[in-house]
Design goal:
2 copies of one chain form a homodimer. Chain A is α+β, with helices and mostly antiparallel strands. The first copy, chain A, is built from 4 helices and 5 strands, in the order H-H-H-E-E-E-H-E-E. Chain A has a 3-stranded antiparallel β-sheet, with no helix packed on it. In chain A, strands 1-2 form a two-stranded antiparallel sheet. The structure holds a DNA duplex.
Amino acid sequence: MPTPHYGQPRYRAIADELRERITSGAIPPGALLPSESALTVEFEASRGTVRQAIAVLREEQVVATEHGRGTYANPYRREGASNADAESETRQRRVAADADLAALFTVEVGSLIIEEQRVTRRNGTVRAVVRTYRRHQSDE
Amino acid sequence: MPTPHYGQPRYRAIADELRERITSGAIPPGALLPSESALTVEFEASRGTVRQAIAVLREEQVVATEHGRGTYANPYRREGASNADAESETRQRRVAADADLAALFTVEVGSLIIEEQRVTRRNGTVRAVVRTYRRHQSDE
DNA sequence: AGAAATTTGTCCGTATGTATC
DNA sequence: AGATACATACGGACAAATTTC
């Protein structure tokens, strides 16, 4: 069978579905998620894909996993209740310097510099996008 | 062949080795790591295991990976404790949204959004340029 | 411009190790 | 001890982004 993943990969779709069950309360805080093999059957995905989905949620601290036990939902609440849904994604890549950046960094236009982008969401909608530019290998 | 991982799993051992090469300077900041297939040969491990090792370093932000390009070492610097001489200039203006920003903010490409730019200098040389993008106050 | 090669991303199936119940 | 559940590891296949020719 081929491996089509047009648009969203399957492990993200599975992660979204599980996250939804947790945030909606279908899986209450502290409860065990279905086992990986159960999820394998339900989503008709391989165990590796299911584990990849759970890894996403673990990184978001939506779940916590214990070896031999299982994966728990929402093991502890964020201390600040204000942190309703402050998701933050970070991405790093190299981009060509535009005229402004080239002038600031004293490099040629088009030189590759580091861009780190953070996307801040609240209640799902993008709040702000922060792009930080640096040079490689600066010296201090 | 069995799959023994007494004590430390292999992917962690590989991660340790690669981290050592980076922190020791054998792989300088900004340089590309060997490709996954090359590491597969060198460590005599499967590609999945190599990728798991790289995932560890990526989470530690010791490396950054780009699709189709490769994995770079240490793209940004640790913030030194000495913030001796930090100046900062701020500028705000309206700019046209590029494809990425348009997608994130769910607006049309070219729509005007707010850009706030801060330039951080130390000892006269530009340290970092931070650009924060937001939408106009319209909804929410 | 376009095709091929390279490199990372996703997904599957299987087997075995280790921790917990 | 046995059953269950997560962790590690292999190998193969195809997809997607980038670079090279």
